[in-house]
Amino acid sequence: MDFQLTKIQRMAKSAIREFVRKEVLSLAQELDEKTEFPWKNYQQTVDLGVMDMTLSEDMGGSGTDFLSFIVALEEFARGSAALAHSIALTEMIVHLLQVYGTPTQQKKFIPGLIEAKLLGAVALDEMATEAGSNLPMHSTSDGNNYVVSGRARYIPNAPLADIAIAFARTG
User: Fold this and answer.
1) d(CA 25, CA 82)
2) 3-state secondary structure string, 99-167?
3) Per-residue confidence at 129, pLDDT binned at 50, 70, 90?
4) Band of the pLDDT at 151, cuts 50, 70, 90?
5) What letter would DSSP give residue 59?
6) Residue 49 Ramachandran class (φ > 0 left, ψ -120 to 50 alpha, else beta)
7) Is there a smaller number of Cβ atoms within 10 Å at the N or the C end of the chain?
8) pTM (2 decimals)?
């Protein structure tokens, strides 16, 4: 297995590193201290082609592999953990919608997410000991829909989110 980055990955890494140096580092500490979301930088990631990296081409993305996305994410994390975390959450939500969402959900949310016009949140339990176990949120079917009850201990971006995906146990 070859563990070297491709030429394209190296070029992207370099471009994002330069962007972080010029645009992110100057704002990150101040925004963290004020507990403000890095909206300007978040929206600038669209021009860098980050928000749609792993979305398939037939759904409007660039269809890039996950390694390339992680390489890009690592560069953002050098400048702002908050920004990198929000980019990662967006990718996760877009991926979940692409794989599990209905066509209506995909049309409604994916364009706004990859254009950084919408912000997502994910509700999950950071205290779970195993995947899917100990989730404090439960879901039951009422025949037509699922009713979610309980609470999540960890919902990053919740106060600002336009969409949230919740992980809940059904059994």
Assistant:
1) 12
2) HHCCHHHHHHHHHHHHCCCCCEEEEECCCCCCCCCCCCCEEEECCCCEEEECCCCECCCCCCCCEEEEC
3) very low
4) confident
5) G
6) left
7) N
8) 0.85
